[in-house]
From TrEMBL:
NCBIfam families: NDP-sugDHase. It comes from Musa acuminata subsp. malaccensis (Wild banana). GO terms for biological process: glycosaminoglycan biosynthetic process; UDP-glucuronate biosynthetic process. Belongs to the UDP-glucose/GDP-mannose dehydrogenase family. This is UDP-glucose 6-dehydrogenase. It comes from the Eukaryota. NAD(+) binds at residues 8-13, 33, 38, 86-90, 127-128, 161, 272-275, 342.
Length: 480
C-alpha cells in the first residue's frame, strides 16, 4: 500500500488529501499539522473549513484510508510520498518584507522531513512557492539526509475555494514538475499514477521543476489581472454611462478572450492572488527585470484603487460623511461559499468606513464575530499567518457589531454595502429592509448581485459597480 503523508491540514492540504483518499482506496493518506486544534476539528463533525461537498468526502474515507494526526514525525517516517502544503505568506519583516514569500514554515517542514526520514521519499511541493524553491529544499534535504534519497516534485494546486471539491474531482489540469534525471522521471511517474486513478491522462501535464513552480505564480497573476482589467473598465463605465456587464459580455464573446472571470467587483481577495503577485514582483526585481515587475505590480494597484474608490463612493454619496451613521455590511468572506476572510476586500472597505467614523453592522452566513474582529484589528499581512499562529485576542473594534441575520444588520441603517456575492443576498426581502432603514436609504452593491432598477423602484438610492449612475449620485461631487 502506497503511504502518503501531507504536512499542513489547511484549505489545500485537507480537501486535496480527502479527495486523493476517496479516489485511491489503495493509498493510505495521513494529514498532519502542528495545530492540535485544527487536527481535532478535522477529526470532529465540525470541520475547520467550510467547503461545499467536503463533509461528504471526509465522512466516506475518514478512518478507512484517511487520517488526521499531530504525530508528524511518525507519519513522515512511514510515508513513501510527503506532500508539503504549509502556508507560504508574505514576509512581514527583514529582507523583502511586504513582497517576498516567507518560507519559514516550508523550511522547517523540510528540516523535519530530513531529520526523521529513515527511507527514500518523494517530497512534493503542494504550497505555492517562488520559482527555484525546489533547489533550496533539495539542498536542505540532501545536506541533512544521512544517505537517504529524496526526489523533489512540484505539484502546485489550482483549486479555487468555494468549488474546491468539484475542482479536485474534475481538474482542468494536474501539473507535475520534476528533475529530468532517471530518478526524477521515476518520481514523476509515481505521483502521476496516484492522480491517474481519476484524472484523464491528457490532463496530467509533466514539466521541469521550474516551469511547474512558475506556472502557478503565472496562473494566479493572469487570473488577478483579468479582474483588475474589468474593474479598471468598470470605473470608466461609471464615468460614461456604459454598463460593465454589457461590456464584459461583449468582450467575453470573443473566443480568444472567453467569458469567465470577467465580473466587475469591489476587488479580488483571498489568500493567494495578492501574495503570489507580490512574490512574482519580488522575483522579477531580484532577476533584474524592473519593467516586468512594475507591470504585475499595477494589477495590485488597480485592486487597491477599486476598494478605495468604493469607500469614497459610499462616503461622498452620503453627504460626504458617514460619521456616527450605521452602515450595514452584507458579506465579509472574500467570495461566496467559503468562510475564508484572508485578504477579503471587506477588510479594507470596513477600515475605510471606520476611518470616517462609521458604525458598522456586519452579517456573513459563514464568518464568526471573533474572526471579523480579529481581521479588523490585525495589521496588513499579519492575517496571512494561520489563525492559531496569530497573536491572540486583539482588541475588538468598538464601532463594529456582528449579527447572524441580514435584517438585524440592516435595521436602522443609513446605508447597506454588499461585499460578498452570497446567493441569499439576491433573495432578501428588500422592501422590508427599506422600510426599516433611515431615509434616504442607500445601497452600494460591490458584487452586482441586486437589480438596481427594482431597488430604485422600492425607493433606494443605488450604486452598482460599473453600472450607469443613479441620478442622485450624478449630482454628488465626483471624488472617485
Ligand atoms: P492554511 O494556512 O490554511 O494551512 C497551512 C497549514 O500548515 C496550517 O494549518 C499550519 O498550521 C500548517 N503548518 C505550518 N507549518 C507546519 C509544519 N511545519 N508542519 C505541519 N503543518 C504545518 O494555508 P492554505 O490556504 O492551505 O495554503 C497552503 C499553501 O497552498 C500556500 O502556499 C498557498 O499559497 C497554496 N494554495 C492555496 C490555495 C487556497 O485556495 N487557499 C489554492 C492553491 C494553493
Amino acid at each position: 500500500m502506497v503511504k502518503i503523508c501531507c504536512l499542513g491540514a489547511g484549505y489545500v492540504g485537507g480537501p486535496t488529501m480527502a479527495v486523493i483518499a476517496l479516489k485511491c482506496p489503495s493509498v493510505e493518506v495521513v494529514v498532519v499539522d502542528i495545530s492540535v486544534a485544527r487536527i481535532a476539528a478535522w477529526n470532529s463533525d465540525q470541520l475547520p473549513i467550510y467547503e461545499p461537498g467536503l463533509d461528504d468526502v471526509v465522512k466516506k474515507c475518514r478512518g478507512r484510508n484517511l487520517f488526521f494526526s499531530t504525530e508528524i514525525e511518525k507519519h513522515i517516517g512511514q510515508a513513501d510520498i510527503v506532500f508539503v502544503s504549509v502556508n507560504t505568506p508574505t514576509k512581514t519583516r527583514g529582507l523583502g518584507a511586504g513582497m517576498a514569500a516567507d518560507l519559514t514554515y516550508w523550511e522547517s517542514a523540510a528540516r523535519m522531513i530530513a531529520d526523521v526520514a529513515k527511507s527514500d521519499k518523494i517530497v512534493v511541493e503542494k504550497s505555492t512557492v517562488p520559482v527555484k524553491t525546489a533547489e533550496a529544499i533539495e539542498k536542505i534535504l540532501i545536506h541533512n539526509s544521512k544517505g537517504i534519497n529524496f526526489q523533489i516534485l512540484s505539484n502546485p494546486e489550482f483549486l479555487a475555494e468555494g468549488t474546491a471539491i468539484q475542482d479536485l474531482f474534475n481538474p482542468d489540469r494536474v501539473l507535475i514538475g520534476g528533475r529530468e534525471t532517471p530518478e526524477g522521471k521515476k518520481a514523476v511517474q509515481a505521483l502521476k499514477q496516484v492522480y491517474a486513478n481519476w484524472v484523464p491522462e491528457d490532463r496530467i501535464i509533466t514539466t521541469n521543476l521550474w516551469s511547474a513552480e512558475l506556472s502557478k505564480l503565472a496562473a494566479n497573476a493572469f487570473l488577478a489581472q483579468r479582474i483588475s482589467s474589468v474593474n479598471a473598465i468598470s470605473a470608466l463605465c461609471e464615468a460614461t454611462g456604459a454598463d460593465v456587464a454589457e461590456v464584459a459580455y461583449s468582450v467575453g464573446k470573443d473566443t480568444r478572450i472567453g467569458p469567465k472571470f470577467l465580473s466587475a467587483s469591489v476587488g479580488f481577495g483571498g489568500s493567494c492572488f495578492q501574495k503570489d503577485i507580490l512574490s512574482l514582483v519580488y522575483i522579477c526585481e531580484c532577476n533584474g527585470l524592473p519593467e516586468v515587475a512594475s507591470y504585475w505590480k499595477d494589477v495590485i494597484k488597480v485592486n487597491d484603487y477599486q476598494k478605495s474608490r468604493f469607500v469614497n463612493r459610499v462616503v461622498s454619496s452620503m453627504f460626504n460623511t458617514v460619521s456616527e451613521k450605521k452602515i450595514a455590511v452584507l458579506g465579509f468572506a472574500f467570495k461566496k461559499d467559503t468562510g475564508d476572510t484572508r485578504e477579503t476586500p471587506a477588510i479594507d472597505v470596513c477600515k475605510g468606513l471606520l476611518g470616517d467614523k462609521a458604525k458598522i453592522s456586519i452579517y456573513d452566513p459563514q464568518v464568526s464575530e471573533e474572526q471579523i474582529q480579529r481581521d479588523l484589528a490585525l495589521k496588513k499581512f499579519d492575517w496571512d499567518h494561520p489563525v492559531h499562529l496569530q497573536p491572540t485576542s486583539p482588541t475588538a473594534v468598538k464601532q463594529v457589531t456582528v449579527t447572524w441575520d441580514a435584517y438585524e444588520a440592516t435595521k436602522g441603517a443609513h446605508g447597506v454595502c454588499i461585499l460578498t456575492e452570497w446567493d441569499e443576498f439576491r433573495k432578501l426581502d428588500y422592501v422590508k429592509i427599506y422600510e426599516n432603514m433611515q431615509k434616504p436609504a442607500f445601497i452600494f452593491d460591490g458584487r452586482n448581485v441586486i437589480d438596481p432598477q427594482k431597488l430604485r423602484k422600492i425607493g433606494f438610492i443605488v450604486f452598482s459597480i460599473g453600472k450607469p449612475l443613479d441620478p442622485w449620485l450624478k449630482d454628488m461631487p465626483a471624488v472617485v
